Amino acid sequence: MLSIRTKLTLWYLGLATAVLAAFAIALYAYLSRGLLTTIDTSLWNQAERIAQSTGHPSSTEEPSQPGVLMLAPQFVSIVNRSGEVTDAILDAEGRQVPVIPEAIERATAELKPQYSEVSLSPSEHARIITWPSQDEDGEMFFVVVGQSLKELESAQRHLL
Fold this sequence. Notes:
By secondary structure, the protein is an alpha+beta fold. Helix content is 45%, strand content 24%. It has helices at 4-55, 101-110, 150-159; strands spanning 75-80, 85-89, 114-121, 124-134, 140-148. The chain has a 5-stranded antiparallel beta sheet. α1 (4-55) packs antiparallel against α3.
């Protein structure tokens, strides 16, 4: 039979462990969500800026979310309505941003940008945005901008 002192010590130890575990989980979720939001906002601003300059070259509007961190996108593609890449900026390894037909269909139907995650390799993932736009002739096209999640995943591993 355990003494009351031992029972209280174990109870407080269990409570402290639960509080620390909850704090660690909340911190991990907060950091992950914050970093993903930063990537999403940067992708949004880059895609918006590219769509404005490609669709309406005379437009000089600033992005809708000024003052945010602008990460240099790793991949940029201009895609026509049938999903064919008409122009692209490749990443440092010569890879092109993956075009996701479902994202093009959703962007066409909803007329708003669509976020997706894709695998570039078994160990590397990327976050992409498919931004619907129209050129001066009214022809629909899509700006697909992507950013590797390698740094985000590295930060998550370091936090763990």
